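=== RUN LOG ===
request id: a7f3
mode: sequence -> structure
chains: 1
length: 231
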Amino acid sequence: MTTFTHKRVLVLFTGGTVAGNVAKSKVSQNVKSDPNSFMTILNNSVDIIKANWNIEIVPSIVELFNVDSSNIQPENWSTLAAKIQESYDDFDAFVVLHGTNTMGYIAAALSFALENINKPVVLTGAQVPLGYLGTDAVTNLVNALRMAVWEYNDVKGVMAVFGSKIITGVRVKKGTDFDYDPFNSFQTGTLGQIGRFMRIDANALQKHVGYLSKSKPLAIHGDITIENELI
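=== RESULT ===
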């Protein structure tokens, strides 16, 4: 009889391009997505992961807010950090659907706000919204889910999974609006790659987990502010 590992995953919906929050001048359609659209994708994916990895996923999705990431504020990030703290004992991993324009900022903010976190917090989004021709939303969400429950390398902490790259939370930088791999890991290489297979760089992983402490409880620094104007 097959024994399954059970994983509870909380998906936090915050809006962005992945949800259809784009300038009308840039697109010919007007498609908006809600959390139920993404739950359908999750439900279609959990059976495949169960069959291949013997992991039974119980996904939940919560809409915290639904705004374009260009308009997101530090108080939104504080709300997100507080929600992860509130739900920490009830879930094994967290996936955050977020806009791409400020994903690097929220990834860094969460990395410092969620001190000692020893569960995966995976950020992802899309260059093309769900429901549009050529959308990358489905692939990115499924890959984020794969990373959130993957047990082979036991990767914890904040990271972004987008296109073919896995990037540690404090190294996420957007370089383009054009292609499906818009993010780079500045100053250091990527944490890993994801596609047909998943690979984690051992040296990058050592640096990634360097700020985590398995001996200390989660500490939330939830009052996120920006002291200097970004130019």
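=== NOTES ===
Confidence is low (pLDDT under 50) at residues 23-29.
The chain has one domain: 5-220.
=== END ===
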